[in-house]
Design brief:
By secondary structure, the protein is an all-alpha fold. It is about 60% helix and about 0% strand.
């Protein structure tokens, strides 16, 4: 089944240029349908990466929150260097 869509002449020229580049790159004959599917695949991959990126960002935020948390069991003296010569031994 085919369908007709209306696009501006400028859009048609841009699509034709991209189609020509894709034909040259792939080295095989392609249709506008092939081009549209190719562009849709690129779009879907982009969206998939954006979702993954958002998940990583959320995980990073949670990790940073945990790192910034303070605990009552540790004080400033726990972060200072020790002089091990006073241990004797």
């Amino acid at each position: 089944m085919s369908t007709t869509i209306k696009i501006k002449r400028e859009t048609s020229l841009r699509l034709t240029k991209v189609l020509g580049e894709l034909i040259a790159e792939k080295g095989k004959r392609m249709s506008y349908d092939d081009l549209i599917n190719y562009l849709l695949d690129i779009f879907n991959e982009f969206k998939k990466k954006e979702k993954t990126k958002s998940k990583l960002d959320e995980g990073t935020k949670r990790l940073l929150e945990k790192i910034k948390m303070s605990f009552d069991i540790a004080g400033p003296e726990d972060y200072s260097e020790y002089d091990y010569e006073d241990l004797g031994g």
